[in-house]
Structure formats: structure tokens, C-alpha cells
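Fig. S4 source data, part A: sequence.
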Amino acid sequence: MSTAADTVCIAGVGYAVPATIRPNSEILKAFPDRTEEEMVRLTGIRERRYAAEDESATRLAEIAVHHALTQAGMTVDQIDGVIMATIIPDQPVPSMASALARELGIPRAMAFDLNAACSGWLYALEVGRCLIRCGTARNVVVVTAELLSRITNPECQDTAFLFGDGAGAAILTGGAGGHRLHQMGLSGDADQFEAIQRPGGGARMPWPDVISGDLESFYLQMDGASVFRHAVIGFAEQIEQTLAREKLKPDDIAWIVPHQANERILKAVSKRVGIPYDKFVVTISKYGNTSAASVSMALGWAAEEGIFSDGDRIIFCSVGAGLTFAGGLLVW
């Protein structure tokens, strides 16, 4: 069980999305044999946001950070660390965290990127918590931004409807009071490495074959059936392990803020853990799956809507490519 000495304060949260809405009707033009009703039933998604060609992930992240700073009542010069969780930075080198630190006007801040796919923001929260608790940093921006539209195959019906763009951020401090972030549980299952992947774009396959011009390996790929099965189990285990670690019962939990993977997955998780679905914060219908950004965006949206009350126990949980698992408690 986390002690007071283990926790840090989430002083503020914020999120940002592009202005352009991409409804299912637009994507369905490539799949004349599919229907809007079918897509909503399978995924729970009705629309998502797509960044314009001149929009960058760094800029979305910057907007989210400023929203979080405003909520925290802090100024950017108080920040001494930037942790960026993303699977698709604006450029591979230098880190997008460094680009963001420059744009924020804090070029001397510690800054680095982290990739744990859809679990990335929760991994980054735990890294930030540890950096504060060990004295390496005082006030840390934990931010995520994903432009998944750039790596989604518009002709693949397994993925074309799922992904969207967005960003979210939290300000972590070592101060007393505020929303208390407890120790996160982090784990994985690398036996499922190929379940969700983008093989191209790394050292093994840095660019497409010049002869074939095939881009398939540069898009996100997913084994839907395998992901569904492992995600339901993985989400449920993260919730159950958090309850056990914090010595809580399901009735003690006010809200679940999960990675927005798929509505059918989240409903199955709700049944498996015995926590009513109306306690799940779900934004997937309007934002889709935004990978590492989805938990932060859901938290930012819920905070903005004012649905949380002081003292609410909130469980985060995520399953991402790798596979990566993460879960933990926030007391509002």
C-alpha cells in the first residue's frame, strides 16, 4: 500500500485536440460494404480528430501543458522536467520533449521521450513520481501527444476506424495536498510483441523499399482478436492489482479512467471486475483511440467537466503494444 511519502501531487491537468473532426462517414467511403451502425457497435467510435498537415504533435502538447499549468496556478518557469510519452514524435532526434521544452521557454529543463505505446502516459507518470520522490526534480510536466492519423492505413478496415489525434498533460509536484498520485504498477507481456506493431521506421527498416514502394510496414498493424483477448484480461488485472495493492474494494472506487481502446473491451472489463460501466470515464466515441494520449485526455476532459469530487478514488489502467500494462490509484 502506498504511503504518504510515496505519493506526489497532480497539481493540474489539461488536454488538446485538433479542430478537424473526421466522422465515420468519411472513412466509410473506402469500405462500401460496412455501415455506421456496425462500426459503432464494434468500436464505440463515432468520430475522431485529425491534425491538419501543418499541425505538429509538439504544438498540441504545448497547448495541453498550458491548460495544465493554468489549472495548477503555476508558471512555466517553475518546471524543471519534461517527460514526453509518444509512439510518433515529430522527428526521431532530438527528443520531442526537448522540442517542447524549447517552445515552452524552459530550454534548461531535463527533457526526454518515453515509448510504452498506449500505456506510455501512465509509465511516464510513474517515472515522474520517482524523479520527484528521489529529489532529481521538483515540478515535472508529464505530457503525451500522438498524431496517429499519420500512421493509420486508410484502406485497412481493422485500423482505419480506431485511431485519432490528441494530447494531454499533467503537472506533478512534490507539494502537500492536491490530487495524490500513488505508485503505479507496471508490467508487460513481450510474448505478444507482434499483436500491435509498426515494423517500419526504425533501424531495421528505416524507409520503404524503393522498388515496390510498399508502405504497409509503416502503418500501425494489429491482430484484433489477439488484442481484444489480452486487453480484457490485462485491463482487469491492472484494476484488480491496484485494488489489492491499495487494500481497497471495488465499491471504494468512484471512477475508472482507462485507456480508450475500444468500447466493447471496456464493457467486458467492467463485467469482469464488477465495477459498473457508468463509473468508467469514456471519451472514445468522439476522440477514438489516441494511444498514449487517451488516458490523459480522458482525465483532462473529466476534470474540465467537473465530474470528480474531492476524495474520489480513481483507478488508471492501460494495455499497450509490447504488450505493456499499467495501473494505479489517484485520489482526487
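Fig. S4 source data, part B ends here. The chain has a mean pLDDT of 96.
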